Hints:
The chain is an all-alpha fold. Helices cover about 60% and strands about 0% of the residues. It has helices at about 5-25, 30-40, 55-65. α1 (about 5-25) packs across α2 (about 30-40). The protein starts with a helix and ends in a 12-residue tail after the last helix.
Amino acid sequence: xxxxxxxxxxxxxxxxxxxxxxxxxxxxxxxxxxxxxxxxxxxxxxxxxxxxxxxxxxxxxxxxxxxxxxxxxxxxxx
Length: 78
């Protein structure tokens, strides 16, 4: 079983690899970078949610919002 410190290191390495791919090819989305890293490391996509840092999650959300892929219900007063 992986200890907490080892898991944190794996997460940091995973995120660094994502950022490195994004830096090499800025035209790729963060989701595409994540898929690339998963294929390189032979990791199943379904298992990576806890490995992705909050900053990368925020960047994915920003990309999705800029492409109108997210729908949010805004509270409005009528």
